Amino acid sequence: MDYYSILGVTRNASPQDIKKAYKKASMIHHPDRGGNQDEFVKVQQAYEVLSNSDKRNAYDHPQQANPYSGQQQGQNPFAGTPFEHHFQHGFGQQQQRQTPRNQDITIQANINLADSLVGKNLIIQYQLQTGETATVTVDVPMGAKHGDTIRYQGLGDNGHPRYPRGDLLVRIRVKKDKAFQRDGDNLIAKKDVNVFDLLLGCVILVTTLENKKLELKVPQGTAPGQTFNIPGYGLPNMQTGRRGNMYITIDVSMPKITDQNVLDKIQQLKNEIQ
């Protein structure tokens, strides 16, 4: 199949020329405009390859790139990629042609780190190609991470009524938290402790992500940078539901002393220790 001939461009056509030719060919062959569906599918396939510099290079130089190496005969090399349903046709004589469908829609859902602890329901509105406004309730699961994507089948675009609707992809964005950093299912926080408390030992209060107060014993002589593990107060794992750990790293807090008598006593104590 000659993708250049399908779009009616030469092999040295620029990306702008390819895009222009694609729009023209889509208008001509679009089934909604009385065009041939088979030709329309070929136009889609051609544009998917030629509009992507890497795939175009692989198509132009199959001996060098060999994008289909390691594939069994008749197997779709684009399986598992967003282009799988476009390239299903033609790979294997027993393959059935996939019916074109409308495009997916990707939207963003913003949550706080604490929302990852208990989950959250969000009501989100988004625009469809037809101009309609769609409303969906997004169930953000416990343990959701920044960059996770939730797929809702059949809630995507509906611009072409003859084709099935696309999917809605909700990409999770977790806002940065002032107190905690996330490492997998674990939470990491710093706690300032007075230098004299580090020398003598103390008990400090630690606030968890769910705003619970815990007592943490800091032994005598604890050095700055030492980390303590509090099991079970991290974030839940999405598969098991088991919570990770909370790690508290000790940082030193230096008191501001301006009284000369106090400074003299500290100096005297330092001399005695040495």
Quickly count the domains. 3
- Helix content range of the residues, please? 25-40%
Straight-line N-to-C gap: 85 Å
Q: Please state the overall shape, judged from the principal axes of the Cα atoms.
A: elongated
Report the major sheet: 4 strands, mixed
CATH class of the largest domain: Mainly Alpha
| Annotation, overall tally of beta strands | 11
**Mean of residue pLDDT?**
83
Order of helices and strands: HHHHHHEHEEEEEEHEEEEH
CATH superfamily of the largest domain: DnaJ domain
How much of the polypeptide forms β-strand, as a percent range? 25-35%
Structural class: alpha+beta
> Which blocks of ≥5 consecutive residues have pLDDT under 50?
65-74, 80-96
Question: In the CATH scheme, what's the topology name of the largest domain?
Answer: Helix Hairpins
Q: Label the CATH architecture of the largest domain.
A: Orthogonal Bundle
CA-based gyration radius = 30 Å
- Total count of helical runs of at least 4 residues: 9
> What assembly state would you assign to the polypeptide chains in this entry?
single chain
Question: Strand order, biggest sheet?
Answer: 6-7-11-10
